[in-house]
Amino acid sequence: MTATTFSLDALAENPARAAGLTYEIRQALIQRCAALCLALADLSSAAPQASERVLGADEAAARMGKSVHWMRRQGRQLPFARRVGKSWRFVESGLVAYLQRKKWSG
Fold it and tell me: Alpha-carbon distance 54 to 76, whole Å?
């Protein structure tokens, strides 16, 4: 690989190609990679850490227009339902997405 024809993708596919790069190009790549790593780390740490809202069977049943008994019986089939001990909990965002799919599919 010549000094003018290199890419990070090519180096990722075959890291041994780095041996053919000049010292200056290797240093430039290291700096670019370091800058990217720092930027990605900043974005990761800035991501919201808010926990997902979880509903009880009574609140989820009201949102779905079903009975609490129905919610408990159907818990295993609902992708947004989680068993916690003897109780069922329902992830709100999953319930909303489920209702949206049902609205448009049927």
Answer: 16
What residue ranges do the domains of the chain occupy? 8-46, 54-105
Q: Is 82 in a helix, a strand, or coil?
A: strand
pTM: 0.50
Supply 9's token pair: 């993708």
pLDDT band at 1 (very low <50, low <70, confident <90, very high): very low
CB neighbour class for 77 (10 Å; exposed up to 12, middle 13-18, buried from 19): exposed
In angstroms, the first-to-last Cα distance of the chain is 57
For residues 80 and 71, the answer to whether their CB atoms sit within 8 Å is no
Rg (C-alpha) for the chain, rounded Å, is 26
**C-alpha span between 46 and 42 (Å, rounded):** 6
